[in-house]
Structure formats: C-alpha cells, structure tokens
C-alpha cells in the first residue's frame, strides 16, 4: 500500500511546524521525497515516519527557497554514509545547477558521485526512475526555476503544486490524480499579499482542485499556527466539496488500488 507522509507542513517562517517536505512511500518501503524542508530536522522527520534513508530512490526539489531545499545536504550526506548507491536528485535545469553549487559548498569530504545522480527534467515530460516512479514536472509561478510535480506509481498519482500563485497549469497537471497537495500559505484575507509573493490561499487551492476534478485535497505550506487549521479548511470547503485536509507534521494518507485515498 502506497502512502503519503507529511514530513513538514509549514512555510519558511513557521515556528511550530517543520518546513515543507513530503514522502511518497510504496508498500515495499521505496521512497520518493518532494522537497526537504529547511535543515537537519528532515532527518528526525524521516525517522518518525519510519523511512529508511537507503530506501530513498528519488528526491525532487521544486525550487531554491531554503525552506524547500535546505535539508537536501543532510539527506544526501547521511544517506551516503548508509548506502553504496546514491539517490537521484531531480528538478528543473535551473534548480539542478543551483543545488550542485550548494552541495559543493556544504558537503565537503564526499565526492559528488557518492552523494547524488543529478537529473534535470523538462516541464510536462514524464521521466521514469528505478522502474518504480514516474515524475512529471510542470511550471509554477514563484521564483526562477520553480515547478510543481506529479509523482506516480503503478496505482497512485499525487500532484504537488509547489510554491505558486494561482494558475491553470496546476489543474491541468492534477487531472486524474489521487490527491492534490496544494500550498495555502496565507489566509483568504491576505489574498493580495499571497499573490504578490507567489503564493496561494485556501480558496485558490480549492478552486484548482475543483477545476482538476480531484476527489481529495491537502492544503500545505501553511503559514499559520497549529490549531488554526479550521479557518483554512472552512474557506476551502466553499469551493471544493471533496475530501479535504490541512497538512500537519506527521500526517499520513494511505492509498489503495480499489478505493483511492484513505486517511
């Protein structure tokens, strides 16, 4: 049974949530990470989720904001000490180049080939990895090189919006997905600010989910204290009538071939 683990649910400035990271874990334990949070806390999060570092096949990084890529050195360095073969790190070409420069600065002592196999992916082009994963990036409206990504296995497809202001490509990418994970950084009351910063609100996420026709939506990258999720959920439910959750650290969603997503 494939599952999605929320390793970190917060934004860059969250103080009671870890910064954004997700793990799609197959029934055999093989894992694809999407973003790595902001630092070494990602290692504790993987332990809590029961993820073994050598079983991480692919790490996809949506963009170069520190709260999404800052944990990559910790993941790659720690994994290299436990596994003989490196994982694949995938992103858009701009992000791959920047990540390689980052690793050259902070991960001294291990050669690049021990740390990662680097893959630059093209938007809307599906790439197979390890005969286990299919990744399809798509553009995001945030910073240079930013993207969302659809991660698919034989029976599950999860669409991650990445950090983005509202745009039609999210709904296009999410059509047919088992779950849409969409950022909802700021509340609806801060919609103008959210758009100006390249972010979305709960209503933006809900409208994308409704346009895509997905049955389940997870609001993520939440810049709000733990315990205030009800406000975000209530705003999203106006536009989205399917199953809706607000991400929290440690949340897991399991998928079955017959029934789709089930918490």
Describe, in short, the structure shown:
By secondary structure, the protein is α/β, with parallel strands linked by helices. The chain has a single domain (3-262), classed as Ribonuclease Z/Hydroxyacylglutathione hydrolase-like (Metallo-beta-lactamase, Chain A). It has nine helices and 15 strands.
Supply the CATH class: Alpha Beta
Span of the ends, CA to CA:
12 Å
Number of strands: 15
- The CATH homologous superfamily is termed Ribonuclease Z/Hydroxyacylglutathione hydrolase-like
The largest β sheet comes out as: 8 strands, mixed
Mean pLDDT: 95
Number of domains: 1
Helix and strand pattern: EEEHEHHEHHEEEEEHEHHEHEEE
The low-confidence runs, each spanning 5 or more residues with pLDDT under 50, are none
The CATH level-2 architecture is identified as 4-Layer Sandwich
């Amino acid at each position: 049974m494939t599952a999605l683990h929320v390793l970190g649910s917060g934004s860059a400035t969250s103080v009671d949530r870890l910064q954004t990271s997700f793990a799609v874990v197959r029934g055999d334990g093989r894992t694809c990470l999407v973003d790595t949070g902001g630092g070494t806390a990602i290692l504790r999060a993987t332990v809590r989720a029961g993820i073994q570092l050598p079983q991480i096949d692919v790490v996809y990084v949506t963009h170069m904001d520190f709260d999404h890529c800052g944990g990559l050195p910790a993941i790659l360095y720690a994994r290299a000490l436990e596994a003989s073969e490196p994982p694949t790190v995938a992103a858009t070409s701009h992000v791959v180049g920047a990540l390689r420069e980052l690793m050259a600065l902070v991960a001294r002592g291990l050669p690049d080939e021990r740390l990662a196999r680097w893959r630059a992916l093209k938007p809307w082009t599906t790439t197979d990895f390890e005969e286990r994963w299919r990744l399809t990036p798509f553009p995001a409206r945030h910073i240079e090189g930013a993207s969302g990504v659809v991660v698919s296995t034989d029976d599950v497809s999860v669409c991650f919006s990445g950090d983005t202001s509202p745009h039609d490509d999210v709904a296009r990418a999410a059509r047919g997905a088992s779950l849409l994970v969409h950022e909802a950084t700021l509340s609806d009351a801060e919609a103008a600010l959210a758009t100006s910063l390249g972010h979305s609100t709960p209503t933006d996420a809900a409208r994308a989910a409704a346009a895509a026709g997905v049955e389940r939506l997870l609001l993520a990258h939440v810049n709000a204290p733990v315990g205030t999720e009800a406000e975000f959920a209530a705003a999203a439910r106006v536009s989205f009538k399917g199953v809706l959750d607000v991400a929290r650290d440690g949340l897991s969603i399991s998928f079955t071939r017959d029934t789709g997503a089930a918490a």
